[in-house]
């Protein structure tokens, strides 16, 4: 049974400006494991990666029904499958979590579906 659905969209230019002005934003949004993936990427992909992960975490909080605050950015971790697909590996939800991330030249969008048994 579906417990919640969330979607969020982030402008890449906004994330790039934040990275330039506040490098601490990366540490606030990404877990250590996500940061390791982030560090391996060239700058353009780092912006896309961070925007996608931020959108995922916002989408999760919407699906969870609380918004960011009741569930923290560090409480949710999105790594990747062997084929590169995103996978939620840590969250407060005890059921299955489905995630999709997409990028354009200007935006990143993420959708989360929470399923409970």
From TrEMBL:
Recorded source organism is Candidatus Enterococcus dunnyi
Where does it mainly reside? cytoplasm
Gene3D superfamilies, A to Z:
4'-phosphopantetheinyl transferase domain (3.90.470.20)
Which molecular function GO terms apply here?
holo-[acyl-carrier-protein] synthase activity; magnesium ion binding
What cofactor does its activity depend on? Mg(2+)
Q: Which gene encodes it?
A: acpS
Pfam families referenced in this protein's UniProt entry, alphabetically: ACPS
Q: Which domain of life is it from?
A: Bacteria
Name of the protein in its database record: Holo-[acyl-carrier-protein] synthase
Record keywords: Cytoplasm, Fatty acid biosynthesis, Fatty acid metabolism, Lipid biosynthesis, Lipid metabolism, Magnesium, Metal-binding, Transferase
Which InterPro entries does the annotation name?
Answer: 4-PPantetheinyl_Trfase_dom, 4-PPantetheinyl_Trfase_dom_sf, ACPS, Ppantetheine-prot_Trfase_dom
GO BP annotations of the record are: fatty acid biosynthetic process
> Which chemical reaction does it catalyze?
apo-[ACP] + CoA = holo-[ACP] + adenosine 3',5'-bisphosphate + H(+)
- Name the job this protein performs: Transfers the 4'-phosphopantetheine moiety from coenzyme A to a Ser of acyl-carrier-protein.
Coiled-coil regions, chain positions: none
Keyword Transmembrane helix applies: no
Name a single GO cellular component: cytoplasm
């Amino acid at each position: 049974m579906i417990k919640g659905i969330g979607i969020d969209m982030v402008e890449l230019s906004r994330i790039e400006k934040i990275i330039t002005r506040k490098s601490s934003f990366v540490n606030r949004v990404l877990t250590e494991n996500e940061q390791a993936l982030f560090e391996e990427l060239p700058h353009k992909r780092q912006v896309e990666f961070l925007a996608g992960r931020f959108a995922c975490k916002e989408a999760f909080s919407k699906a969870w029904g609380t918004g960011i605050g009741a569930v923290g950015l560090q409480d949710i971790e999105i790594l990747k499958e062997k084929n590169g697909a995103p996978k939620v590996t840590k969250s407060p939800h005890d059921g299955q979590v489905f995630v999709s991330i997409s990028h354009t030249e200007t935006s990143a969008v993420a959708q989360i579906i929470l399923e409970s048994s």
